[in-house]
Amino acid sequence: MLAGWFPSHSLAFYMARMFLVRTLVVLAGLVLILQTLDLLGESGRILAYKGNGDAEVWRYVSLRTPQIIANFLPFSVLLGTILGLSQLNANSEVIAMKSSGLSAHQVLAPLILAAFGVALVSFSFNDRIVSRATATLDQWKKLGYAPLPVDRGDRVNIWVRDGDDLVSVAHVSGRANAARLRDITIYDRVDGTLQAVVRAPRGMRDGDGWRIGPAVRFDVRSGKVTQLGAIVVGRGIRPDQFTLSNVNAEGLSFGALDRAIEDLRDAGRPTKALEGALWHKLSGPLSAVLMPLLGAVAAFGLARSGKLFIRAVIGMMLGFLYFMADNFALALGNLGVYPPWLAAWAPFLLFLLIGEVLLVRTEE
Question: Are the beta carbons of 144 and 49 closer than 8 angstroms?
Fold first, then answer.
């Protein structure tokens, strides 16, 4: 079977190397430009915190660069495909390959195989590096680029609604009934009007509520401050409302997100949007396999006809349409219009069919 798809190993290696080199060059250029532009807008906020300097700026770069790579790798694969196939077409190498008996699918087979390898590397990179960098960067931004505490899987800046009241917790450690709260602020409201603010440095689970203390109450109308000591508040607030209120799909690995979805489902919380993000962690990297098929329009057809540039533009348009459809489907999935698996996989399957139809009708 492999001999049928790759009659010449030398030719397959040549095309795969050409494809990978151009993809990496395009990706490096995009990352350099986009990271520079992003840093111009963010460096002022980083340096605004007293004590931050060049080390913190470079730390931001190290955390932001993996995100840019993950976002633009499929697009780089598309451009690498179009650049490589356009050169092969312009030099009549595609004509030579087809004259030797290779079909269009056999011409593209080395690129698709290389793109599948890129997809596997992309999934591992996203799962092990990008997710951790995203979680760290999000937490760092929430702290205003202040020094990060030691990462023990804790949550920061959690907001929970208790009836008409709002509860803010700066730091949550532990899970379930063992959860510990630090720097609690309760905004006591009646019909949306703030009546008082209660603050306490720490809190823990106590029956169906939370014992916080030593609590201090500030009355908004009178301006009076009252020492309350240890009090029980938030009766009816479940521990998972603190520990699961901020599930960032982009900041979790595939396995960690799957476990978070199970915890939310057990707590009776909605999980459709997170399930769509879980499926997209598979379909997103796999989109690299589609790019040689969508960019194949630049490979076939006579270069001397003057339409090579138009074919390259059509290939880029197909790629852009795929990315737009992918984002649109995910948005519909988050709104509950599409089932999660359909939101993640429908654009992939649709453009796989479109690419195959175009290839067969034009060349096979």
Answer: yes
pTM value is 0.75
Render pLDDT for 96-127 as a digit per residue (tens, 0 to 9).
887 777 787 888 888 999 999 999 999 999 99
CB-CB contact of 58 with 118 (8 Å)? no
Cα–Cα distance measured from residue 185 to residue 174, given in angstroms and rounded to the nearest whole number: 19
Query: Do residues 274 and 288 make contact, with C-beta atoms less than 8 angstroms apart?
Result: no
Say if residue 298 is exposed, middle or buried (CB neighbours under 10 Å; 0-12, 13-18, 19+). buried
Which residues lie closer than 8 Å to 189 by C-beta, 6 or more apart? 164, 165, 166, 195
- Token pair recorded at residue 59: 């730390």
Query: For residue 360, which of 352, 6, 100 has the smallest C-alpha distance?
Result: 352
Which residue reads 């009816």 in tokens?
A: 236
pLDDT, tens only, 130-177: 999 998 898 888 888 888 765 555 676 777 788 888 888 887 877 777
